[in-house]
Design a protein that fits this description.
- This protein is of the alpha/beta class and 288 residues long.
- 33% of the residues lie in helices and 17% in strands.
- The chain contains 8 helices and 12 strands.
- The chain has a 7-stranded parallel sheet with strand order 5-4-3-6-7-8-10.
- Helix 2 packs across helix 3 and helix 3 runs parallel beside helix 4.
- The protein is elongated and about 75 Å long.
- The two termini are 33 Å apart.
- The mean pLDDT is 93.
């Protein structure tokens, strides 16, 4: 899995050098809100940048591909997919846009992107059979960061179809069926080869089982100003994090290497406490 590209600026310093901030869905919504409220940036501009960045990532990742099936939901994730379809078509790709039940966009920005695509002859058609996914690349634009629980109804059936697809799949924001804040998979979930997420890296893409569905993760810059800082909910340790921990000297005793208190477990449930205690000793703590 590729390392994250830090785009979103953290409001607090990293605990160790080389750590990447991880955010939840609420932080991403706040970034969008502050871009509009504080910096007069229209949300549809961010959608355009997101779709363009994804189309460029697809073209770079699959240089031999010339066709794409873009499966869109009714929300803004589907709007991002419409932008992807438009740019790939402009570059000479054969594109087909499919929607579960052929549903119309439910958000203003997604509706605008669908109308723009329609002027270029890109129509949204119902997702019906497995043949609808016959393309070099399939794009998952069904569910975004706000989705919770198992996908249901026509969308759930579409997620199952994408999950069973044998070819390359690229997910927008995160694989449909994966929860952004926890990585939880409550039902069917897409298994992507590449996930393009926007502005900030998500917890759900980095913890199991979500990370097993995400494939390679690319964090795309969509133009949110650097003045918009966010509070991470977690940090992803990079290769430099371990090097930042000072080594224990050859002559040092346990009282010079710091101590760790583990508060965990219950009668008959001591496994987690034992694992945590042993891990702290392995990591170099002098006393646990």
């Amino acid at each position: 899995m590729a390392a994250a590209v830090a785009v979103a600026r953290s409001a607090s310093p990293a605990p160790l050098p080389g750590c990447t901030p991880l955010f939840d869905a609420a932080a991403m919504r706040e970034a969008d809100r502050r871009s509009a409220a504080d910096h007069a940036m229209p949300s549809i501009l961010l959608m355009e940048r997101a779709g363009l960045a994804t189309a460029e990532a697809i073209r770079g990742r699959y240089p031999g591909a010339r066709s794409a099936a873009i499966v869109v939901g009714s929300g803004n994730n589907g709007g991002d997919g419409m932008v992807v379809a438009r740019h790939l078509a402009e570059w000479g790709w054969e594109v087909a846009v499919r929607a579960p039940g052929g549903g119309a966009p439910s958000t203003p920005d997604a509706a605008v992107m669908a109308r723009i695509a329609a002027t270029l002859g890109i129509a949204v058609e119902p997702l019906e059979g497995s043949g609808d996914l016959a393309a070099d690349v399939v794009v998952d634009g069904l569910l975004g960061t706000g989705a919770r629980g198992a996908p249901r109804g026509a969308v759930g059936a579409a997620v199952e179809r994408l999950a069973a697809h044998g070819g390359p799949v690229v997910s927008l924001d995160l694989p449909s069926g994966v929860e952004a804040d926890t990585g939880r998979v409550a039902g069917a979930a897409v298994r992507a080869d590449l996930t393009v997420t926007y502005h900030g890296d998500l917890v759900g893409l980095r913890v199991a089982p979500g990370r097993e569905h995400a494939g390679e993760v690319l964090v795309a810059d969509i133009g949110i100003p650097s003045a918009v800082t966010l509070e991470p909910v977690a940090w992803l340790a990079g290769p430099g994090a371990a090097a930042a921990v000072p080594p224990k000297g050859a002559g040092a005793d346990k009282y010079r290497a710091g101590s760790v208190l583990v508060v965990a477990g219950a009668p008959g449930l001591t496994g987690a406490a034992c694992l945590a205690a042993r891990a702290s000793l392995r990591a170099g703590a002098g006393l646990t």
